[in-house]
Structures are given as structure tokens and as C-alpha cells.
Design brief:
The structure is a single chain. It contains 13 helices and ten strands. It is α/β, with parallel strands linked by helices. Strands 6-7-8-3-9-10 form a six-stranded mixed β-sheet, sandwiched between helices. Strands 2-1-4-5 form a four-stranded antiparallel β-sheet, with helices on one face. The longest helix has 24 residues.
């Protein structure tokens, strides 16, 4: 399949003379139609600049940015604005909703700038994100998660070929992060091309490909599906349990060939050594996975009174891949910072275990709602 998005030796320079800054420095990348790319890197690495170039909010100083075969670097300002409105939907960290317009009107505003308003179509976009019942509410009457869902509806209403998301969950709590990730997964399943800037490792795992930027250049490109990332977590979990004397049995099984392939790949990205031993990075990730899994087991048994071992194990496996550190700590606090899972295996302690605080009603509800989401 030919490239849908193509950047050819793209450089973006801000300023002149000795003080000029190369925000993007000679980047060449391709993305196929329907691909999901996560752009990651430290602050100042060029992530948002790269997103703006792909979204036609800015133009390269040198090089070419082609979208669907159109060289956007050759478009005049008016042509660029038109192309952008017909091709790209934007989701921002700050939502950028107009405060005196209600949810429906904010979505219709995107239609206005594209062509003409269509209220039923705008309402359908709100329905896609589960916000049709809040259509008449102003942004100030909506939670942060609800505002972001309205912003996603606004991005979708003109049926864009590309969704560009700049830290789309950066201002959201854990529960709303999962809702937004679910919506992005749905868009990906529909065949939309998604380019997402994020600092969130869990968000980066959702993408088909991850680009790590550093000082305006691509430092590393990783091609991993969500399933592969789950395989990495499961290998780390097995390595952890093998080093214990508790006898906790891991149900995941791999052939020798699959195991060797996973170890080689995980060694490449710094999770284990070539001998299959933890690196510091891999041990920290394994510890988090084990903690989430075993706390989830305790939650299902102690709070939800589920005693079927297969059901507990299946549900805990889902939790080990998706729970945020915030919700994990809340779950640990709700359970009273348990030392062991129902099988007697030790639960790695977190920073919350030294605080000995009690959850309020809203925090308890947040943990239990997390269970419902899964």
C-alpha cells in the first residue's frame, strides 16, 4: 500500500541567524492509510511542530509534506486552509471549545468553517461519543472528560481522513482517559489514520507504530501492536514469578520459538538483556504489571465477592494492561494496602502504602467504575 502521509526531508526552522532553532531537522517518514502513529519524546523534541506540519497548521522551511498525494508545501494560504478543513480533524489537550456555545453548537461550528451547518449530522457526531444527552450544555457545565468527547465529536463531524491528537488525555483523570482511548480505538477500527502526540506510555502502546523524537530528529521507531505489548507484559510477568518462591503460576504459555523472538525484541527496546534477565526499566515495568494484577485479584475477591478462580484470573489479566498508576494506588488504598494476593503471592508495595490515608466516597466510586469500564 502506498503512503497516505509522506514527509520528505522536512525541516522547520524558527528564527534567523545564530539564534535560529531547528524544531524539526530533516525528518522523512511515511504513514499508510488507517495507520495509528504515536509521536513521543521529551518536551522541546519537536512533537507538536511535527503534528502541526502534518495538520497543515504550519508549513515546512524545507522539504515536502504530502497528504494523499497532495504536496501541501506548494499550496497557497487559502488553499491550505481549505485542504485542512476537508482532510484533518484535530483533538487538543485544552479542548478549545467556545465557552458561550453549547455542545451541539460547538460541533456545528466546525461544519460552518467546512461548508454548511447540519444539525442532525452534528447530533449524530455527539451520539458517536455518547454525548447526545448533553447537547444543550455549555462547556462550563461539562466535566473535562465530557468536554474532550465533545471535542472529538467536533473533529469527526466533517468525516476527516486524518485524526490528529495532541496529548488528548493530558487533562483527564484515569476513568476519562480510558473512555477517550476507547473512542480512539473505535476510530482506528473504522480505518481512520491517527497521529497522536503523547507522553503517556500506555497511550503509546495502543498505536501501530511509535516514533521517539529527540531534538527534532527521529531517535527510534518501534512497530508494535497492542497485542505485542501485552505479550511483553506477560513475559515480564513470567520472569518475575519465576524469581519468586511463592509458587504463583502464570497461565500464559509460549513455544520456545515465540519466547526467543519476544526476548530478542524486548532486549532491543531495553526491557531485558539478551540472556533474558531484567534491565532496570524492565524490572520496573514488571513490578507495575504484577502489582496491578494481584491488586485486581484481591479487589474481585474481597470487594466484589467473586470466588471463581478462572473469572478472577481473566479479569485481572485485563487490568494488568490498562490501569493507570492513579487508579492502581486508589485500588490499593481501598483494599487497605494488602501484602499478598489471594494465592499468597506478595504484592509489590507502592508509594501510597506509606501514606495510610482513606479514600473518600468519590474515589471509591471511581475505582468501582473502573471495574465496570473493563
Amino acid at each position: 500500500m502506498s503512503a497516505f502521509i509522506e514527509l520528505i526531508d522536512v525541516t522547520k526552522v524558527y528564527g534567523d541567524g545564530p539564534g535560529a532553532v531547528n524544531a524539526i531537522d530533516g525528518i522523512s517518514i511515511e504513514a499508510k492509510r488507517g495507520e495509528w502513529i504515536a509521536i513521543m519524546g521529551p518536551s522541546g523534541s519537536g512533537k507538536t511542530t511535527l503534528l502541526n506540519l502534518i495538520g497543515c497548521l504550519d508549513q515546512a522551511t524545507r522539504g515536502s509534506v504530502l497528504i494523499g498525494g497532495t504536496d501541501t508545501s506548494k499550496l497557497r494560504h487559502s488553499e491550505l486552509a481549505r485542504f485542512r478543513s476537508e482532510t484533518v480533524g484535530f483533538i487538543f489537550q485544552q479542548f478549545h471549545l467556545v465557552p458561550h456555545l453549547n455542545a451541539l453548537e460547538n460541533v456545528m461550528l466546525a461544519q460552518y468553517f467546512h461548508s454548511m451547518v447540519d444539525e442532525p449530522e452534528a447530533m449524530q457526531a455527539l451520539k458517536q461519543v455518547g454525548m447526545e444527552e448533553r447537547a444543550s450544555h455549555l462547556p462550563s457545565q461539562l466535566s473535562g472528560g465530557e468536554q474532550q468527547r465533545v471535542a472529538i465529536a467536533r473533529a469527526l463531524v466533517n468525516d476527516p481522513k486524518i485524526i490528529l491528537a495532541d496529548e488528548p488525555t493530558g487533562n483527564l483523570d484515569a476513568e476519562n482517559q480510558r473512555i477517550v482511548f476507547g473512542l480512539l480505538n473505535d476510530l482506528h477500527a473504522q480505518g481512520r489514520t491517527i497521529v497522536m502526540v503523547t507522553h503517556d506510555e500506555n497511550a503509546g502502546k495502543l498505536a501501530d507504530r511509535r516514533l521517539n523524537l529527540d531534538h527534532g530528529r527521529i531517535k527510534e521507531t518501534l512497530f508494535f501492536s497492542a497485542e505485542e505489548n501485552q505479550d511483553f507484559d506477560e513475559v515480564l510477568e513470567q520472569l518475575w514469578t519465576r524469581g519468586e518462591t511463592s509458587g504463583h503460576v502464570d497461565s500464559h504459555e509460549y513455544t520456545d520459538a515465540q519466547w526467543r523472538k519476544l526476548i530478542v525484541t524486548m532486549a532491543h527496546i531495553g526491557l531485558v538483556t539478551e540472556a533474558g534477565e531484567f534491565t532496570r526499566k524492565g524490572e520496573a515495568r514488571a513490578r507495575d504489571v504484577i502489582r496491578r494484577h494481584r491488586l485486581a485479584e484481591r479487589l474481585f475477591m474481597d470487594v466484589l465477592s467473586i470466588h471463581d478462580e478462572d473469572e478472577i484470573e481473566s479479569s485481572a489479566c485485563k487490568f494488568e494492561h490498562i490501569l493507570s498508576p492513579e487508579v492502581t494506588d486508589r485500588m490499593c488504598t481501598l483494599l487497605g494496602h494488602p501484602k499478598a494476593c489471594p494465592h499468597g503471592s506478595p504484592i509489590p508495595q507502592g508509594e501510597c502504602c506509606a501514606e495510610h490515608r482513606v479514600l473518600d466516597a468519590a474515589e471509591i466510586a471511581s475505582v468501582l467504575n473502573s471495574v465496570k469500564v473493563v
